[in-house]
Each structure stands twice: as structure tokens, then as C-alpha cells.
Amino acid sequence: WFDDKTPYSFENNIKANILGNVLAKVLTQKIREDEGATYTLMAQGLSSNNGDKPLTMVEVDCPLKPEFTEKALSIINGEMVNACTSIDPGTIKDIKENLIKNFTANAKVNQYWVNILMHKCLFDLDIHNGWEEIINAQTSETISAFARQLLNGGNKVEIVMTPQD
Question: What is the Cα gyration radius of the chain?
Fold first, then answer.
């Protein structure tokens, strides 16, 4: 799912990141653990700015056995729809705690500061000050509203690659 209308902001990037993490947790449980359809599953969300063109997206990559394709796609699409109305507050709490832990750890390495400087120089955005408040302000409701906005945009690319017989 993607959107090129939502303006880039650090808050939108955090919301996309949290939504991606929510989907990763739910889909790993349902597709990997419950269905046994995959060994790995990756879901991520991000918001970025390419010049004056914003891009917000949530991506799910799921290499799986071909016989599970329809079931997995149904689960993936269903869980994105579910995220638009209801997300477990405990899941949001866990993801926020992990993000804060990661931001704190990353602030001790040079690449973090290079990224901070790049955003300031290229986009005049301060993505260092206030990050903890932005993360803590997110709730099940704010992430569900963000998921609805992304889903209601109607922009989705679905790619299924199957092995040659």
C-alpha cells in the first residue's frame, strides 16, 4: 500500500513504522505460526521525501510455498483492513517501547547523526528533538486512522512470483 499525497513528516514516518511493525507481528503469527506457510515474513512501513515528492508505504514480503499463496494474500489483505478499525493496545505499547529503545541505542552511533544532519540539510527537518514525544503520542486509534488513510487511497501493488514448473 502506498500514498504519494500525504506530506512527509517525521510523525508520518513513525506512524508508518508502527503500522509496519503491527502487521509484522500479526502476520508472523497467522501466516508462519498458525498456517506454517512461510519461514520468514517481513513487513515494514515508512514515509520519505524524494525531492518534493512524498511517499508513504507499507510493504509485506512473504516468500512462501505456492500452495499457500491465496490463503496468505487473504490473510495479509484482511489484516490491513483489520488494522483500520482495531489494533491491540498492548501491541502498540510493545512496539513503542522497542522504538524508544532503538532510538536511544542509535543515538550513540555516527550513522544516526549523519541521518539527523541529512534531514536538516536536505529537508530542513529536525528529526532528533521531540521523537520520544511523537512516539509516545501514538495510540491504537492514531495508527488505525493512519492505516485507513493509506488503505482508502486505493494504491496497492500486489506481486506474486511463482517458480517455473
Answer: 17
Q: What is the 3-state secondary structure (H, E, C) of 68-91?
A: HHHHHHHHHHHHHHHHCCCCCHHH
**What confidence tier does 52 reach under pLDDT thresholds 50, 70, 90?**
confident
pTM score > 0.85 for this model? yes
Which amino acid belongs to residue 15? K
What is the rounded distance in angstroms from the CA atom of residue 43 to the CA atom of residue 41?
Answer: 7
Distance separating alpha carbons of residues 101 and 99, to the nearest angstrom? 5
User: How far is 7 from 9, CA to CA, in rounded Å?
Assistant: 6
pLDDT tens digits for 138-151?
Answer: 999 999 999 999 99
For the stretch 23-49, pLDDT in tens is 999 999 999 999 988 888 999 999 988
**Separation between Cα atoms, residue 22 and residue 35, nearest integer Å:** 18
The gap between the terminal CA atoms of the chain, to the nearest Å, is: 30
